[in-house]
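Morning. Coffee machine broken again, so started the prediction first thing and wrote up yesterday's gels while waiting. Chain of 263 residues, entered below exactly as on the submission form.
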Amino acid sequence: MAMETNQPILEVLFFVIGACIGSFLNVCISRLPAHRSVVVPGSACPKCGHRLSWWENIPLISYLILRGKCRSCGMDISIQYPLVEFITGLFSLSLFLKFGLSIDYLVYFCFTAALIVIIFIDLWHQIIPDVISLPGILIGFLSSLVLTNMSWFDSIAGIVAGGGSLFLVAWGYHLLTGREGMGGGDIKLLAMIGAFLGWQAIPVVIFLSAVTGSIVGIVALALRGANRHTAIPYGPFLAGGALAYLFWGKNIVNWYLNLIPKA
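Came back before lunch.
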């Protein structure tokens, strides 16, 4: 009864915690591509160098108070900042509702936070930092030793299936066309996804990323006049497929199996 009474308070708390972590993720998104420390110096306006005070760093609220502009020079603050904070808070809440206050929540929140950073960095810079994906593979494997519904074998198999499948696709595409069609960052990202979610997730993640990537590619062709050789970052689609599997994996698999005609 006490848990039920405190549930709304806990839900708000986990959203706020997620939003605060999202503020740090914005720092990672901004600095990792430039190989800068994510710890020092403190946050500042990129135009005038104004160091942000504590009240200018409150997730979501500060953006509203400042009306999306730097207090010192009036430069527009990117909508990315409140967006990442809101998304991270929403995922924190959703993971709490799914797993409760557990080791599973902690592991998958760290996994989700890493994917959020990867999505935005790949969108803006078309790179997936090794400093996230490579340690992520090891952390994912170690996490399998404590996760409720994951075994170390599933994690190892996921690493091999994830990294190996995309490596073969990239190698085959290069062999046939002489061009690089899949970056090494994508290969390591899918290996990390396999480490956290197991080999069972790999076919679903590949399928979902291929479908969504194809749809976005077709829309880009129609709207921007892009050609079939235009580079479109694939990391966000892999990450999106992983998040979809994390929350609705069994439902997606069951939906697909129901489409297969019964003998």
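The chain has a mean pLDDT of 89. Going to sketch it on the whiteboard this afternoon.
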